[in-house]
Amino acid sequence: MIFQQSDADKMYEIPKTGINRQLHSWIQFSFGSDMPFGELDSKADALYNYYGFTYNRKIKFNAILSHGYGLGVHHQLYPLNQRGLSAVQRDTWDRGRLIYNGVNMSYFVRINFDPKRGNRFGIYMDLATFGQFNFHQRAKFVHGNLTEKVNKENFPERFAAGVETRVGYESLSLYVRYKFFSERPDSGAYTNVDLAKWSAGLNIAIFNFR
Questions:
Q1: Do residues 184 and 159 lie in contact, with contact meaning Cβ atoms separated by under 8 Å?
Q2: What secondary structure letter does DSSP report for 7?
């Protein structure tokens, strides 16, 4: 005898996907800056020098613990008149910056502090590790009214990896990142350039998949 699930039973099934269900996917927008922020020498230098979009997938273990991964793209600026980077071609430009575009991936474990939160993000903390690959790197220098762009050079940090902590409420979370690995070029003008290891910023969940 074959038993079929009735329409009434289907009506009372708990969905497997949702913000606080077994599976959940969402897209977030992130922006942040290096730490310490440093002094900006020009109005053209932006305080927030990191922007990115990430697709996140979360798998729930129980009401408190879950884990997941993120796949993202990012755009990053490093003003060259901060943190000692001015040693690069200082006598030939007024201001400059490194401009990076890349992809990144992360794995995170989430701890929720309000297990009876309903189908919401609630209050949570993420412990994560990440890696990134900057597939397009270039430098931009301004000489008075002239702009020079440099593409073919051994720039620092083509690959990087680190750890991250996020503390959030609902769709907003604050993050702090530390890069424990950052690839350095073995030749060229940027061999002694150290980019910031610490950064902080804000994540905003802008779209939740049903």
A1: no
A2: H
150: β partners: 139
**What is the pLDDT, as a whole number, of residue 44?**
44
Q: What is the pLDDT of residues 116-158, one digit of tens each?
A: 888 889 999 999 999 999 999 998 888 888 888 888 788 889 9
Return the pLDDT at 92.
Answer: 65
Pick the CATH number of 23-208 from 2.40.160, 2.60.120, 1.10.10, 3.40.190: 2.40.160
In angstroms, rounded to a whole number, what is the distance separating the alpha carbons of residues 185 and 195?
Answer: 12
Between CA 35 and CA 196 the distance in angstroms is 7
| Dihedral sign for Cα atoms in the order 97, 99, 105, 110 | positive
Domain segments of the chain as ranges? 23-208
Residue 34 is which amino acid?
A: D
Q: Which residues of 66-77 are buried (b: 16+ CB within 10 A; e: fewer)?
A: bbbebebebebb
Q: How far apart, in whole angstroms, are the C-alpha atoms of residue 198 and residue 35?
A: 5
Q: Is the dihedral of CA 132, 138, 143, 145 positive or negative?
A: negative
Q: Which pLDDT belongs to residue 161? A: 98
What is the pTM assigned to this prediction?
Answer: 0.82
Residue 9: φ, ψ to 5°: -65, -40
- Rounded Cα gap, residues 146 and 25, in angstroms: 46
